[in-house]
């Protein structure tokens, strides 16, 4: 058995064409395809020349086959043996069939999705495989519309706890789901206008479905990509949109295409070998598909147009690149009309045999592996009550009761399709849910590993006739579009998209380990210990690769290990490091050659007159080996031409050395051995020299790095110091500000307090004043009463005075009544009356007058005394608080008294 057939995967390499308008060779093309070996029509080997670094090793890789840039979708379809895979699944010769896996692997933007799902005008391997399957099944295919119990019976015999739908009910549900637009979370629309995030102008690229249009660069485009780099590799993150994106016909059509429709069934058993040699047949295929050769990298596969319709964050100029839109931002759901699906390449001439004694059913399911979890793409997300976000439930990859020996994705939604169109529409619906985002490397970059499963169920015909439903068996073709590895720097991803990229790269790393282990195992005849349980992706890809060893297997039907094909895609003008890494772990064989400059060894070698052809064989896929000197292309000297190393067709690489002149082996064996030894010594010493130089340069680089590290540490310390000082200064400045503010506040508070107390004192004073004035008023009232009394007394006395004066004036000395007889006022009055009524004798008149005078004086004296008393009592009453008022009154009284006194004196 040859080594290639022992591999778990056949590995093909497909090179992506350069961006349209780019001239090959202008950019740094680092990958060269070796000419096919004489016994092979197609190339199998490539050489990887590190750009701009002649000291790096030149690596050679072997693949099952290499597809150059001009290979069409049909070439890839034929030569990768998809038809073989389909045949294995249909099992025309009876039995359960063989599961098949077809996957693409590569750096982001290298053309994986293009290969698997095609472009707007070219179908991908998925559509072609589906076409062949439906065409091949023909009349043996059952449809839910004609077999109402089909759905039920498939569901009953499905081992994976799946929910089975008929295509018509599923599509009606999906396309009639009015809530879908608001919740579809994975794909946002691509705007018609594409803006370069680094340029100030709009950059519009429209596709009208014609390849030529796509391939012609606009003047602006040519300006942006003058050196031939593809857009997808451009750091300018240009988004490519298609005109049809904005004019996608309304769906569903008025007459649903799936109702009562059966696809045209091609003739049976027209089987074409997928392994077309590169002879006339290959040429014919190339001629047939020559129209598709102009595919440029600007084309989108037709599903990608859906993706672009719902393109996410990075396509919006104002959105941070790579970020996903929320569900609410997703506009209406627009899916393609089946007539809008591309029809080319045409595989109507192809079909494979199916088992004529069996009836078949095609069941489709889709899921994606995102962040190492499996999500069903055909089950709509459910709105979470807590977060109000649409979420999908992750599914388990496990053994179920019905499949104890085999792990399956449990709980998927599966759709029974009766025609190619139905299958394409289900595929479209599933892709609609798949996560994509625009990154700096690819405008429609897959952010998850997408799995498209076509289960071909099979059972013996006529089992229903006897009322017994035989359970369905069968196999599946799984088509996988892996997410691309990417470098965050190039992809310019951030946030969630960056985290996604981390998970993608991690799962691809595990996949790489598995692939490397399998190639090591094949090359070294070691047991196949592939560590595929490290992540979901590798589990899904590898767990069916091995024959079942479970104890259950005896009681269950035997399953063949799956047949697997991996198509590695690479852009020869893309990122060298990322591409070489993928090639390293995916290649079936690898050889590393240390480059050397022609030296004295060559001279020795050229002087060797003759040497027998020598064959050296070395295992490949092992850690880098240093083989015989390899003369890089372009190096001078005959030896470069003489020793052109080639990788053999087998994964085991062999190097054959032959003399250009084809001269016969030397007669002297010893001499030949010595020459070979000399060659080897020379080579080894050159290698030693090279390694010494490499070591020296590495050491110098290390010193440089260390000194750089030290200076960086110093710089860090300085920076830290500066930052600390800045912090202190800032702290002090703020403290100062705070203190000033505190002081100002304090001042304000104090003023407020003073004002407050001032107001309180004022109120208190007003209270005191109010009480004082009340007292004063009372005193005044009392004084007024006294004054009134005094005034009355004065008035009375004045009257008395007047009376007395009148009496004095009117009275003759003889008739005058002596004053002493009037002891009191009353007696005065009565005396006056009595004097008027009884006159006295004249002899006593003088004496009486003198007495009267004395009486009057005494009386006046008494009055004066009574005034003093009044004054004293007034002073007593007024108290200490109003002495001035008392004094004033006293002075007033005194004035009155003296006025009265004057009056009295005037009287005398
Ligand atoms: N063989 C090809 N012929 C023409 N165009 C191609 C080819 N391969 C890739 N392209 C173009 O290159 C661009 C990127 O390709 P694609 O989306 O398939 O990359 P990818 O590897 O799937 O990227 P990712 O991993 O980010 O999803 C697309 O515009 C596609 O049309």
Automatic annotation (TrEMBL):
Superkingdom, natural source: Eukaryota
Sequence positions that bind ATP: 106-113
Region (Disordered): 210-237, 269-350, 632-668, 814-857, 869-908
Domain Kinesin motor: 8-592
An example molecular function term from Gene Ontology annotations: microtubule motor activity
UniProt keywords, alphabetically: ATP-binding, Coiled coil, Hydrolase, Microtubule, Motor protein, Nucleotide-binding
Gene Ontology cellular component terms for the protein in this record: kinesin complex; microtubule; nucleus
Gene3D superfamilies assigned: Kinesin motor domain
UniProt name for this protein: P-loop containing nucleoside triphosphate hydrolase protein
UniProt organism field: Apodospora peruviana
